[in-house]
Amino acid sequence: MRGRLFRVRVAAKVIVTALAVSMIPVPAAQADLRLGLKLGEIVDNVLPAPPTPDTTPSRTSSRITKRTTQPGLISTVLGTLGPTSTRAATAGTNGGGAPGARSSQKTLILYDNTGPWAWLGEAYAVQAGNLASHGSSYVMHPVGSYAAGEISGYTGVIYIGSTYDEPIPLAFLDDVLATTKPVLWMAHNIWQLTARAPSFQTTYGWNWVQYDTGAATTVRYENTDLGRNPLATPSGLMITSITNPAIASAPAIATGSAAGPINWATKAKNLTYIGEIPFSYVDHGDRYLAAADLISRVSNPAMADRKRALVRIEDVGPDADPGELRAIADYLYRQRIPFSIAAYPRYENPYGVENNGVAESYTLAERPDVISALRYMQNRGGTILMHGYTHQYEKLINPYDGVSGNDFEFYTAHVNENDSVIYDGPVPGDSAAWMQGRINSATTAFAQAGFARPAIFEPPHYAASAVDYEVIQQNFGKRYDRGLYFGGYCPGGACGTGTPQYDKIYGQYFPYLVRDIYGSVVAPEAVGNVEPEPFNNHPARLPADLVKTAQQLKVVDDGVASFFYHPYLGTAYLRDTVQGLKNAGYTFVSVGTVMAG
Ligand SMILES: [Zn+2]
């Protein structure tokens, strides 16, 4: 039996998993001094936003002097999808819809790729693409290579303006102004669109005003308050003015700025505008959820709005306490709640932590009591996932103590002087062959204990290198995860064709089922876990906090309230969380049900 201190420490490390999203070097212009970040360091996998120049966008761009009479009409008839597009993502692995996506839909995602923040443009496109896959297949590429009429091969368009004054092809502006298909435009360069259409305000019933950098830290969407991290505010939120409420409306409103309420999103006809990049500094219950909902309304306007929940029992290894596992299974079984079990089949403790300095190493096959508890869980609705092989890496302190269940297995990390977990890069010797060997070893260890190879993979602490993710895709095709992604991996929008840059990493949680850029179907986990103690600069989270996050998640059509739970916490917190989610209107299903689409 482990001591209390040990468990607290373990819980802490898991917070890394909870927010695992990560990091990125923070642009100098917006480095967060409070966290003591240095350029190139990455904390919490959170994407920043590029700084917005301290100028007012021009209403009469000099680029747009040769305006013709009317934008040329383009076809708004949906043609044959797929083959008609010359930009099918054949080179990359991305672009497929998740199970449940509508095959008659196809989304075009355009992004900026010029200037010093070009890599962020690609990162934002990856995030938009991952989300769009919930509703449809998609193609993404830089807006600069947009071809006139290209929109006719799609059912909807998403443009992410991350580079101030990116030279947008006039053909794209004209096609946006002419189409009746849903268009979602984010952040910069809306001024290029309005400059192209002198009658924009009359036609759409709104216009942009200027960027606000005040403390607009709450976004109200569908009668729910969502968060907006103060770190995001210096990048600006475009104020819009609705001049004709009969045409335009504001689906979401930001408050907190001295400028007063600001239309966070503005909608008129088929055009929806979000006044910022909604992928920066994302946390639980973030305005990112509103964006996720607006994106899936473009990729599949007919998406069903189910309210389903998932629970995953976390970090179950050969060192687990069989009594705790049985108690969890008994409770969930009585509640008729299917669940999954994130299991690793080999325990390592190279430095003998909590064991008088004597190293330990054993497999599931050597722990018959744990095997029988796992069987007990399976018989009561449990689905075993492969949560790595050892959930630690060799004898590395990575970043806590080298003990299984605590450390990273497929990525390296350290805790810096400010007690933040910093992601460092792939593990020494990382390769496709190494990763395959790891999966094979785990499969063998499960087999020796009498278990079939799990069908779903979950990387420990939600972290692995790009090549590891590719091997996971080849072996499983399914993850239960918050994804970790890398700048430069998707040149021109073709993911897998570029060299991942491990100093430009970013994580993403999903509110619904997606197929991510590695090609894998990814079951969502957007609610996090119970953490009774604060850790690594993350606050404690109790069942009420998880329930609040789940309530906020309800703004997302088809959002899944998915959380994970450590069996050493006992059943009281689990009961409170389950009951809270049920009271919020969610129905628990199995991960297999969600993954079926
Ligand atoms: Zn874990």
From TrEMBL:
Chain coiled-coil ranges: none
Region annotation (Disordered) ranges: 46-67, 82-102
SUPFAM superfamilies tied to this protein: Glycoside hydrolase/deacetylase (SSF88713)
Alphabetized UniProt keyword annotations: Signal
Record's compositionally biased regions (Low complexity): 55-67
Region forming the signal peptide: 1-31
InterPro entries: DUF2334, Glyco_hydro/deAcase_b/a-brl
Domain of life from the UniProt record: Bacteria
Protein name: DUF2334 domain-containing protein
Organism of derivation: Lentzea roselyniae
Organismal lineage: Bacteria, Bacillati, Actinomycetota, Actinomycetes, Pseudonocardiales
